[in-house]
Specification:
Blueprint (H helix, E strand, L loop, with lengths): L2 H9 L4 E5 L6 E3 L14 E7 L4 E5 L4 E9 L11 E10 L3 E6 L5 H9 L17 H4 L3 E5 L4 H47 L7 E5 H4 E5 L13 E4 L15 E3 L12 E2 L4 E4 L8 E3 L6 E3 L3 E6 L6 H9 L2 H7 L10 H7 L1 E5 L4 H47 L11
Parallel strand pairs: 3-6, 11-16
Antiparallel strand pairs: 1-8, 2-7, 3-4, 5-6, 5-7, 9-18, 10-17, 11-12, 13-16, 14-15, 14-17
Helix pairs in contact: 4-9
Length: 412
Amino acid sequence: MSGAIFMNKLLEGVSVEWTTLGDERFLEVANAARRPVKASLRVSGMVPYYGANNIQDYVDGYTHDGEYVLIAEDGSASLENYSVQYATGKFWANNHVHVVRGKEGLNTRFLYHYLCAVDFIPYLPNKDRSKLTKGEMIKIPLPIPCPGNPKKSLEIQAEIVRILDAFTELTAELTAELTAELTARKKQYNYYRDQLLSFEEGEVEWKTLGDVCDFKNGFAFKSNLFKDTGLPIVRITNINGSGVDMADVKYFDPSDYKENTQSYAIDSGDILIAMSGATTGKIGCFNSNITAYLNQRVGKFIPKSNALNNRYLYHFLLSKTDAIYVLAGGGAQPNLSSKALMEKILIPIPYANDSTKSTAEQKRIANILDKLDTLTNSITEGLPREIELRQKQYEYYRGLLLSFPNPEVAKA
């Protein structure tokens, strides 16, 4: 039996009563016990301390004990996918979550899955949509299947929970399996990279990066002139340690600047490095059909001649990210100097006195590492895709299971 047919059979002939989260027959709001505690005043323990989006700490003591759903009161990381958490056993809730649970006729886990599908935006009246008040929360509609038959109602709720929990578990298992495979691939790549870039004394000539390539610093684009469309800017946050993530990009209009911004253009194949911030020392190879532009604190390596293979340089730099980070001073605010980078980091050049033999050997090493890199990246890219597909599958069946007939919302 197909999933859709099964869902239809499960819900066939099911009546529903639409009430709200304020209906005390079915739901308890347990906000009174919430208690915020500053991090400096918390006593370390084994009990999870919940904030708007996740567990923030583990403490001694608790505010609640049982099965509950936590709805962000303010501070949800996303408005479109509003923060809803499921908590069981002893836990501590701060004042950034509403704490609710089902009563005798409402399965709390069913309530959790249902609330994950709710659009909370209409219930965030503030201009900046920053707060879900209790007054607005209790207006949110709530479906109760088979209200005239509590036993059957709870059986239907339990079956819906079983199905949706199974999808959740499958997604978690898939994530764990693919993450383990990704870790193994990365270890394999790192092992062969280190082996291929390890040379015996006399086999190579060690040169500074400044000997074999030039370095281009980025331009100080003004954040107040960033646009939603235009020419893309690559910032330090876009450098992810192997590539350049263009998912979150700012744009600019060249007419806003008197300087020649064209000299800061980057093209496919260019090797970039983050010079400050949390991504300091991370390398990214720009692979895109579009031309983008270097922001300040992003640098570009430019081989001086054909004697240096660009992909060989890329793999070498990946092997030196830790050393580069140390060179930047490490700590909370690392800041990399292009002068220090080009003078202090040494790169091995095989057969330095024979350019033909040297480039052939660099290409051989780069080709091997490229193949391993492709295997690793295929999993890196495939992991979020697979998880997204599972999530969409979960949302599809959740929609089928929670699309009750006659959805007339009860008045508050």
